[in-house]
């Protein structure tokens, strides 16, 4: 057979660690083409020898039939030559390392159906093996130390393949062809069960069976997964769930659940089509869905709210455990606000007082990562935590980007960094409150910069003078001269616009708990007009004193009292306050005497907290946004609280005082569900009225919604519906979270507007 040509392609995207090279080899053999395929630090290099038509067909099939986990972003022809060379075999070459890393690392992927079928086959050598994987599934991001992606550069390097596994790895027709984490019971990682002292009790399948027995008996287990440990127990066992809350010192925050399959999930939550697709996707996030009518779970699983967070199994260990029970609590194993526990020794030290037994393994986790969480607002998914299954997948730009590092915020921290045509945003790194949180931020930052060999030239950070994220990034990038501070809510606006690929100006409704304002007060209920390049503050919620600063966050009655003092005459406000919070009499009098001395805030988050406290739902909180979440949970029916607007110079102020008066006066006339609903819908209405007025003045029709308050499903749905009715176009977060996780992305977007 004569050879017409030789052609070389460079394929970029998520093309390493997803079975792409074996796919390329199979496709070449199918089309009788010679050549080679090779990983390099830009992507995958494919050299083809054969007739022109077959090569053209190859290029088409390369994109159309790519492995399910591959994300091809470009196929570039970099060499073409007419040749008469004899045909060659098609081979997979060893990976090549170049100076600049451009390849994309895949996220960790749920166990595929083929592997599950083998794991359940008594005749298969991997029968009930808890680390079964192939090119289409298993750990990726959490085990990679260096690029290119080869076994020697992962935490699997210490497990040399046995002859049988090596044969599979080298067989082009095998599903494990060049699968880097490939292993079996003879050569791979081992699972074991131990007690809180570390004494081993059983290994592999026996460990799973014994662990299942203990779970059924009401014990609490620490279980090592892909990105860290979970704490597990039986969600139907009141005693076990209550004990987990006591030991973990987590009195109210809802626990996540893992269901054996979709049918088990449907037995406790209402699942629409969009939620079902998310649950079944290879990314396997926790999906927050409405509670069903008749679940028989412990009341301690998710108290005082109307949803459960549920996920399906995503590792072989999970599937094996859930053969014996259909539901388990699977909550992140951490101490208070510290990061997830991932190491075995660390687990015994930190989780010893919590877990009765430990299900451990010896495949190291190089970078810890939490489960992703997506809440359903009807058919609209809202990221509340972007992590496992999604990170490190980048956001793509049509043009090459200057190297910018966005340091992020301090709560729900992330960082973002540009490289080539991409913006990489780290996984959720928690709140930067202690040494362990700072260490995690630094480790992941070092890893990204090392993997991609990035040398940032620009640093963008929050205007708050004391943020630890700013300090960490400034210390590590101390030589940089190009630095830019960005106001918190401007970063929110820029992130939302980037998420919608929108480059124009928009009205921004930025609602969250706190952000350092340009006037050095605490912002949080902001109406902005602008773009990534610049913004103006067109309005905000009427400010009120914040008694006790951070104490007002953990004790919502404090800010509620402040609102009463602003709404009613002082004596009337005090009478109402003493009726609502009689145990706080001494503090109420002190706050009333010093009301003018406290820092002021326009925070929407605190406004919702205050409404919850006035309605008697929550006077003290044990987790972030608890009062507001419980207010949302009871909101039912139709009502509309009377928010008003005040013109102050060029600014429009949203006056909540009539709404607070409406709540107080309505407590004897309406039920709490109606009052809660009216508070939500009244705020939606006034926000849309203000947006409509600004749109008429400016000609701007797009309205961006960002900030943690927009995780409120009712507020989001009603506001978006009213905006559309008014002829405006709502822009909401789609690939990112509206909470402070998006701050680092917004900072980068602002930096690009300044320096690109």
From TrEMBL:
The protein's matches in Pfam families, at most eight in alphabetical order, are given as: Acylphosphatase (PF00708), HypF_C (PF17788), HypF_C_2 (PF22521), Sua5_yciO_yrdC (PF01300), zf-HYPF (PF07503)
Q: Which Gene3D superfamilies match?
A: 3.30.110.120, 3.30.420.360, 3.30.420.40, 3.90.870.50
BP term (GO), one: protein maturation
Keywords in alphabetical order, please.
Answer: Hydrolase, Ligase, Metal-binding, Transferase, Zinc, Zinc-finger
EC number(s): the record gives 6.2.-.-
Q: Which EC class does it fall in?
A: ligase
Catalytic residues of the enzyme: 21, 39
Per the record, the coiled-coil ranges are: none
| Metabolic or biological pathway | Protein modification; [NiFe] hydrogenase maturation
Q: Which GO terms describe its molecular function?
A: acylphosphatase activity; carboxyl- or carbamoyltransferase activity; double-stranded RNA binding; ligase activity; zinc ion binding
What InterPro entries is this protein classified in?
Answer: Acylphosphatase-like_dom, Acylphosphatase-like_dom_sf, Acylphosphatase_CS, Carbamoyltrans_HypF-like, Carbamoyltransferase_HypF, DHBP_synth_RibB-like_a/b_dom, HypF_C, HypF_C_2
The organism's superkingdom is given as: Bacteria
- What SUPFAM superfamilies would the database entry show? Acylphosphatase/BLUF domain-like (SSF54975), YrdC/RibB (SSF55821)
Signal peptide boundaries = none
Is Cytoplasm tagged as a keyword?
no
| Catalyses which reaction(s) | an acyl phosphate + H2O = a carboxylate + phosphate + H(+); C-terminal L-cysteinyl-[HypE protein] + carbamoyl phosphate + ATP + H2O = C-terminal S-carboxamide-L-cysteinyl-[HypE protein] + AMP + phosphate + diphosphate + H(+)
* Acylphosphatase-like domain location: 6-94
Identify the residues that the record assigns to the YrdC-like domain, covering every copy: 205-389
Please give the family membership noted in the entry.
Answer: Belongs to the carbamoyltransferase HypF family.
This chain belongs to the protein called: Carbamoyltransferase
Q: What is the lineage of its organism?
A: Bacteria, Thermotogati, Synergistota, Synergistia, Synergistales
């Amino acid at each position: 057979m004569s050879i017409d040509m030789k052609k070389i392609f460079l394929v970029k995207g998520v093309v390493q660690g997803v079975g792409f090279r074996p796919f390329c080899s199979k496709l070449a053999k199918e089309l009788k083409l010679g050549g080679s395929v090779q990983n390099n630090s830009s992507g995958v290099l494919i050299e083809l020898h054969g007739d022109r038509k077959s090569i053209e067909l190859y290029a088409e099939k390369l994109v159309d039939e790519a492995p399910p986990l591959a994300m091809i972003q470009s196929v570039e022809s970099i060499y073409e030559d007419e040749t008469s060379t004899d045909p060659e075999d098609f081979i997979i070459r060893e990976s090549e390392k170049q100076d600049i890393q451009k390849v994309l690392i895949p996220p960790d992927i749920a166990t595929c159906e083929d592997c599950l079928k083998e794991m359940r086959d008594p005749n298969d050598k991997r029968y009930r093996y808890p680390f079964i994987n192939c090119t289409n599934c298993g750990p990726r991001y959490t085990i990679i130390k260096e690029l290119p992606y080869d076994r020697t550069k992962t935490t699997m390097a210490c497990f040399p393949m046995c002859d049988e596994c090596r044969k599979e790895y080298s067989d082009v027709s095998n599903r494990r062809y060049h699968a880097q984490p490939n292993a079996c019971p003879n050569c791979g990682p081992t699972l074991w069960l131990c007690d809180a002292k570390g004494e081993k009790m059983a290994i592999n399948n026996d460990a799973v069976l014994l662990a299942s027995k203990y779970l059924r008996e009401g014990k609490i287990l620490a279980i090592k997964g892909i990105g860290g440990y979970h704490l597990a127990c039986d969600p139907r066992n009141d005693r076990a769930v209550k004990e987990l809350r006591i030991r973990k010192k987590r009195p109210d925050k809802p626990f996540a659940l893992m269901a054996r399959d979709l049918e088990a999930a449907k037995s406790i939550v209402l699942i629409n089509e969009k939620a079902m697709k998310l649950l079944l996707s290879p990314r396997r996030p926790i999906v927050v869905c409405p509670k069903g009518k008749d679940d028989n779970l412990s009341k301690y699983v998710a108290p005082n709210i109307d949803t459960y967070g549920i996920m399906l199994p995503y590792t072989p260990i999970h599937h094996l455990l859930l053969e014996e029970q259909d539901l388990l609590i699977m909550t992140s194993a951490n101490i208070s606000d510290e990061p997830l526990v991932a190491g075995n020794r660390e687990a015994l030290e930190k989780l010893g007082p919590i877990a009765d037994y430990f299900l451990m393994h010896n495949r190291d986790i190089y970078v810890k990562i939490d489960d992703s969480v997506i809440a359903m607002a009807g058919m609209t998914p809202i990221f509340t935590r972007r992590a496992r299954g999604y990170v490190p997948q980048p956001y793509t730009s049509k043009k090459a980007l200057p190297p910018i590092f966005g340091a992020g915020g301090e709560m729900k921290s992330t960082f973002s960094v540009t490289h080539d045509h991409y913006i990489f945003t780290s996984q959720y790194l928690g709140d930067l409150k202690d040494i362990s949180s700072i260490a995690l931020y630094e480790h992941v930052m070092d890893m990204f910069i090392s993997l991609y060999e990035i040398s940032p030239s620009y640093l963008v950070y929050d205007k708050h003078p004391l943020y630890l994220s700013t300090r960490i990034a400034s210390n590590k990038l101390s030589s940089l001269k190009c630095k830019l501070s960005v106001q918190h809510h401007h970063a929110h606006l820029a992130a939302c616009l980037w998420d919608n690929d929108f480059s124009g100006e928009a009205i921004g409704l930025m609602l969250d708990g706190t952000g350092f304002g340009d006037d050095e007060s605490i912002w949080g209920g902001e109406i902005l007009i602008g773009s990534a390049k610049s913004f103006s503050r067109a309005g905000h919620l009427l400010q009120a004193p914040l008694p006790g600063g951070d104490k007002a966050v953990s004790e919502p009655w404090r800010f509620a009292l402040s609102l009463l003092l602003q709404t009613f005459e002082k004596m009337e406000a005090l009478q109402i306050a003493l009726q609502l919070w009689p145990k706080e009499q001494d503090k109420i009098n002190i706050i009333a005497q010093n009301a003018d001395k406290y820092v002021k805030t326009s925070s929407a988050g605190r406004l919702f907290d205050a409404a919850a406290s006035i309605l008697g739902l929550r006077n003290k909180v044990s987790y972030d946004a608890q009062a507001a979440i419980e207010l949302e949970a009871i909101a039912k029916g139709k009502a509309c609280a009377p928010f008003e607007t005040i013109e102050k110079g060029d600014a429009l102020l949203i006056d909540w005082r009539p709404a607070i008066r409406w709540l107080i006066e309505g407590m004897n006339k309406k039920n709490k569900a109606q009052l809660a609903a009216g508070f939500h819908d009244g705020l939606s209405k006034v926000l849309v009225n203000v947006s409509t007025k600004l749109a008429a003045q400016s000609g701007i029709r797009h309205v961006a919604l960002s900030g943690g308050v927009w995780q409120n499903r009712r507020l989001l749905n009603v506001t978006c519906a009213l905006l559309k009715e008014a002829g405006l176009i709502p822009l909401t977060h789609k690939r990112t979270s509206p909470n402070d996780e998006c701050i680092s992305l917004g900072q980068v977007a602002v930096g690009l507007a300044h320096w690109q």
